[in-house]
Amino acid sequence: MSRQDCGMRIAQITDTHMRARGELWKGRVDPAATLARLVAALNRIGPDLVVHTGDVADSADREDGAPQYAVAADILSGLKAPLRLLPGNHDTRAGLGAAFGRPGDGFLGFSEEARGLRLVGLDTLEPGRTGGRLCADRLKLLEAVPQGGPVLIFMHHPPCPMGLPFMDGFPFEGGAALARAIAGREVLRIACGHVHADVERHWAGTLVSAAPAASAQLPVDLPAFAESPRGLPAGFTVEPLRIRLHDWDGATLTVKTVMVEAVEGPFPFPP
Fold first, then answer.
1. Which residue segment(s) compose the domain that 78 sits in?
2. How far apart are CA 28 and CA 77, in angstroms?
3. Does some domain include residue 2?
4. Interatomic CA distance for residues 17 and 218, integer angstroms
5. String of b and e for 74-100 (b: at least 16 CB within 10 Å)?
6. What are the pLDDT digits (tens) for 79-123?
7. Cis (ω within 30 of 0) for the bond into 161?
8. Domains held by the chain: number
9. Long-range contacts for 125-129 (Cβ within 8 Å, ≥24 apart)?
């Protein structure tokens, strides 16, 4: 599908884990430099909308996140496309809202229609809970969507296990209620982050899809996922940056993951 044929292009980024400027994530990754490269790539691609599916900050849940949000907001202000943000478990609603012009302590979801596609962003942050939660109040955003039209849901936490032992050890609360809410609706996809891996699962009649993180990935092969004595995965990998693109042509959603740097080619096919 070419950009010209696409009714709407929605780019998804996730898990930037921003630190204060100059600080490294886990001693390896410069989140500010990484996000700047992502913004440059997004501006080259030219989506109609960018959705950040959470963990904008790295440790706002444990310390003052204002310096982290200030850096993220400064870099993301360079985006040419409109931006929607959802909180992850390392975020705070107050900090995220203050930095990005949504003050207050209410839920940070969104619901909007664009070119015949309903976009619903669900706030799954539950302070003190790694695995996330959806309560009845937050589900009202989805339940208010009329049945009969296509829906694309964004949220930080996958609502079901994703086959990654460490992450699956922090269960999501409210998955059954979400499954009931999407029953009878044309939910094309639930686009998530959180698990630091490019992984998908069929669930409740739709597809739950976790996008690769902007910071680092966790290994998806089970031998490499052996836990360390501290209960953490054996390690993480720093990989070329990728962006998840959701292309809507008015009837069909096509999803692709685009590597935006450190690739060889393209090379012409030999005769």
1. 8-259
2. 25
3. no
4. 14
5. ebbeebebebbbbbbbbbbbebbbbbb
6. 999 999 999 999 999 999 999 998 766 899 999 999 999 999 999
7. no
8. 1
9. 125/54, 125/87, 125/88, 125/89, 125/91, 125/92, 125/93, 125/156, 126/89, 126/173, 127/61, 127/92, 129/89, 129/170, 129/173
Q: How far is CA 263 from CA 44, 49, 91, in A?
A: 16, 25, 32
Label residue 219 by pLDDT band (50, 70, 90): confident
Q: CA 200, CA 207: separation in Å to the nearest integer?
A: 7
Query: Residue 23 belongs to a domain with what CATH number?
Result: 3.60.21.10
Amino acid at 231: G
Rounded-to-integer distance, Cα 107 and Cα 130, Å: 17
Helices 136-143 & 175-182, crossing angle to 10 degrees?
20
Q: 3-state DSSP call for residue 56?
A: coil
Kind of pairing between the strands at 110-114 and 199-203: unpaired
Give 227's contacts (C-beta < 8 A, 6+ positions apart).
165, 166, 233, 234
Amino acid identity for residue 92 in this structure: T
Q: Is 184 part of a structural domain of the chain?
A: yes
The token duo for 187 is: 């939910």
